[in-house]
Design brief:
Order of helices and strands: HEEEEHEHHHEEHHHH
Helix content: 40-55%
Distance between the termini: 25 Å
Number of strands: 7
Radius of gyration: 20 Å
Largest sheet: 7 strands, mixed
Number of domains: 2
CATH topology of the largest domain: Ribosomal Protein S5, domain 2
CATH architecture of the largest domain: 2-Layer Sandwich
């Protein structure tokens, strides 16, 4: 874990004065409920002890200066002229969040920001969401803006969707903004209601690094999201009331499988069955039935491997 005093001193060294505030936002691990968030389904993540710190102070002008300790790079831009950066890709998450705040007609001044993160990049631990939430939290505090955690999560997701160009769901930003220590969060990604469920005190969750890196900005993620949308469009021919795969039960999908091309059917089957597994897993954790929970996790991975085709041999 990082030491906030080290972050403070790094800010002071880089910008020549102490920060006014330091905030942090955690990365996450999703226990079960993979690729269901953008299908308006259920997810069950936990916040982890890897996090992004942002040290910040206001400026008297309209310039944002953001320094990444991880990349040893600085990005600078004017609040009224926010465009994508081709030289510092990490800075687009910062720029996107600032632009999202402005789009809500919330007035802000310039700021100096130092970003320090120990969330590994490309390891599926939501380094980008952690960055977005931390930046949003710091900027709102500097400008006396009071966004609810849900609002901050939606703002951060919007930055990644609209500015960075990754069509991610809401889960990563939501758990980073609203996660609780020693709890998993059962999130309904349709209405954003959520329920914290305690992790039994004798349970330890181990996160293993497979050594394989991923990139949400690659075509595979957006392609799968588009395929899910196509499945809904085709299923509407017989199920006109559905608006997302969340509305489809396994029996419904099986009865209407002839409407879908083989690959589309596989993708839809994963999402539809994963929603069922996620709700069952939350119930199992509530009654401390770890054997049942583990079995559901195994079934979830088999579905990701065989139907969604997003696993690799290392996992």
């Amino acid at each position: 874990m990082q030491d906030p005093h080290v972050v403070r001193d790094a800010f002071t060294e880089h910008f020549g004065a102490r920060p006014r505030l330091i905030v942090r936002a955690p990365g996450r691990v999703n226990l079960i409920g993979e690729h269901t968030d953008y299908n308006e389904g259920f997810v069950f993540p936990i916040a982890i002890d890897r996090e992004t710190f942002v040290a910040a102070r206001s400026r008297p002008d309209h310039t944002i200066r953001a320094y990444s300790a991880q990349f040893a790079q600085e990005d600078s831009f004017e609040i009224g002229m926010i465009e994508r950066s081709s030289t510092t890709p990490w800075a687009n998450y910062v720029r996107g969040v600032i632009k999202g705040i402005l789009a809500r007609d919330l007035p802000i001044t310039g700021a100096d920001l130092l970003i320090s993160s120990d969330v590994p990049i490309g390891s599926g631990l939501s380094s980008s969401a952690s960055l977005e939430v931390a930046v949003g939290y710091a900027v709102q505090l500097l400008n006396n803006i009071n966004l609810l955690g849900e609002e901050l999560a939606l703002l951060a997701q919007g930055a990644e969707n609209s500015f960075v160009g990754v069509q991610c769901g809401i889960m990563d930003q939501f758990i980073s903004a609203l996660g609780r220590a020693n709890h998993a969060l059962l999130i309904d990604c349709r209405d954003l209601s959520y329920r914290p469920l305690p992790i039994p005190p004798d349970v330890r969750i181990i996160v293993c690094d497979s050594g394989v890196h991923h990139n949400l900005g690659s075509s595979g993620y957006n392609e799968r999201r588009a395929t899910c949308g196509e499945a809904v469009r085709l299923l509407k021919a017989r199920m006109p009331r559905i608006s997302a795969l969340r509305d489809v039960r396994p029996a419904d999908l099986e009865a209407n499988a002839d409407l879908l091309p083989p690959t589309t059917l596989m993708r839809a089957r994963h999402v539809v069955t994963e929603n069922q597994r996620t709700l069952a897993a939350a119930a199992a954790l509530e009654r401390a039935d770890l054997a049942a929970f583990g079995q559901l996790m195994n079934e979830s991975h088999a579905s990701m491997r065989d139907d969604y085709q997003i696993s690799v041999p290392e996992i």
